[in-house]
Design brief:
243 residues, mainly alpha, 9 helices, 80% helix, elongated
Length: 243
């Protein structure tokens, strides 16, 4: 009885964390979009981004802080999920879990740039003359491409999509969770994957871009994570044997 109660508690904790992470991140991201035109502003030059960031003041920095750490909540339930599903010996799920956890950490690094790196750059840009602003803009571009486009967006999103695709395939093959969850997970993950075109275009001008992939893919992926949390919360897990 104690083992069963412990398992049920772990299941509820994992489901709740997926749901809380998805909903709180969506809330923070919505505020960020309304106050800072995120994510569209990510593709704007320094002379647009830095003055607007400086005008946002401390409240904008705290919004970025909240966005970063609400997304990082997903790190914990991703690690707990194989145990909850009774598939700790499933090698593909183990690899995907590692990828998903690293994805959350990389996204955290990408978001926290706006808390620890961008504010001093924005202040320097505001206080500099035209010549020095050119140097600040170059520093801005370097950190933005490295910490944002490379670490947070390219690697972070790719690993997160890899986790969700693998989990969705396992769900479809084993029915450890409802099949519709696996099917929807595959669809939104592929849509989210197309957002890589927008990221690659920052390094390779002319790279094909699917403009709506970021909005539809990220929103759909977030809703799917929330649905995953709800399903884990409300229904027992079908412990199918590992393939």
């Amino acid at each position: 009885m104690t083992t069963e109660a412990s398992g049920a508690g772990l299941r509820r904790t994992t489901g709740a964390l997926f749901l809380i992470g998805a909903l709180t991140f969506a809330t923070a991201a919505t505020v960020l979009s309304a106050t800072f035109d995120w994510p569209d502003i990510l593709r704007e030059p320094a002379d647009v981004v830095l003055p607007k960031f400086a005008a946002g003041g401390p409240s904008l920095v705290w919004t970025w802080f909240a966005t970063a750490w609400t997304y990082a909540i997903l790190f914990v339930p991703i690690l707990l999920l194989p145990t909850v599903l009774g598939r700790r010996e499933d090698a593909p799920l183990g690899v995907a879990t590692f990828a998903g956890a690293i994805s959350a950490l990389l996204a955290l690094i990408g978001f926290l740039r706006w808390v620890f790196v961008v504010p001093p750059l924005a202040r320097m840009y505001q206080e500099s003359d035209i010549a020095n602003r050119t140097a600040v803009a170059a520093a801005w571009l370097a950190q933005h491409q490295y910490g944002g486009a490379l670490i947070g967006e390219h690697l972070g999103q790719l690993l997160g999509v890899g986790w969700s695709i693998t989990l969705s395939i396992i769900i479809l093959r084993t029915r450890v969770l409802p099949r519709w969850l696996g099917l929807v997970g595959l669809i939104v993950s592929v849509l989210y994957l197309f957002n890589q075109g927008d990221i690659m275009a920052t390094a390779f001008p002319g790279f094909p871009v699917f403009d709506l992939a970021g909005l539809i893919g990220s929103s759909g992926w977030g809703l799917w994570v929330a649905a995953l949390g709800v399903v884990i919360l409300v229904r027992p897990i079908a412990h199918a044997p590992a393939p």
